[in-house]
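Lab notebook page, bench 4
Experiment: in silico fold of construct C2
Operator: M.H.
Input chain length: 257 residues
Purpose: comparison with the prior construct
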Amino acid sequence: MVQKLSCYILTKNSERYLAQILEPLASAIDDLLIVDSGSTDQTVAIAKKYGARVLVRPFDNFKSQRNFALENCQNNWVLSLDSDEVPNPEFIDQIKNLKLADFKYHGQTPDSFGIKRRWILFGKEVHAFLPCSCPDYPIRIFRKDKVTFGEGSNEVHETPTGSTLHVVLLEGCIFHYSCDSVFELFNKMNQYTTLAAREMKKKGRSTSWPDIFIHAFGAWVKWYFRKGGYKDGSVGLLLGIYAGLYTFFKYLKLKFD
């Protein structure tokens, strides 16, 4: 008996890449779920075209949004994708093979699997984009009775917890088309730094002017030099500046909000 697999995607005005994601998934996924937080473009229409169920939930934070999606997936095995992550054909084949193998891999039955994720920004594959070295291998296929977005997660960066064995898929990848414009990049920065500052404040963190500038400069050095952003030319320079500004505004909001 072939195991069934759900896939959920969080969306808001996500029409740009959604068809490219859903079209290949339709042949491999048994239950497509879109959790939308108020799209005004063609997101919902595209989702329904490919047979996806659509649930609407106002956005509060990513951790809550993902746990809501998990609760509403029909199958125990779940694939989690973002609305700008496009799977390549080899990865779709890997999903089909995993289902046929009852989610066994090299004789083991893990609770979760990692995906190779390659980051594309401004049309260029990059080596680093805060908070990830690129490519990275996030856990994206897992059993929802074992893995949730729990204590290891915060409002900005959601970390699946509960897995006893993490296996990286050796074939296929997803392409993460994170930002295509400076406006989109800094709009994302504003949203994420607000959530990050709120999370730090909940934990009793505080900051000072010297700390704000030290952390911001350190972030620029880390992501432009140590993480290899300098290898990516002008895009890498922009993303290094972004890392510094992201950190600056995160701590600035912590101080004044």
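Observations: The two ends are 54 Å apart (CA to CA). The longest strand covers residues 5-11.
Next step: discuss at group meeting.
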